[in-house]
Amino acid sequence: TVLDANAVVTVATNGRITIAGGSTKYWNGNVTNAGTISWQPSGGLSMSGILCNLAGGVFDMPVDNASILKPGTNAVIVNDGIFSKTNGTGSITCYVPFINNGRVDIQTGTLTLRGSPTFNSGCEFTGAGIVNLPDGTDTLNGSIYSENLVLGGTTVIGSCQLSGSAKWEAG
Question: Once rounded to an integer, what is the mean pLDDT over residues 26-34?
Answer without folding.
Answer: 95
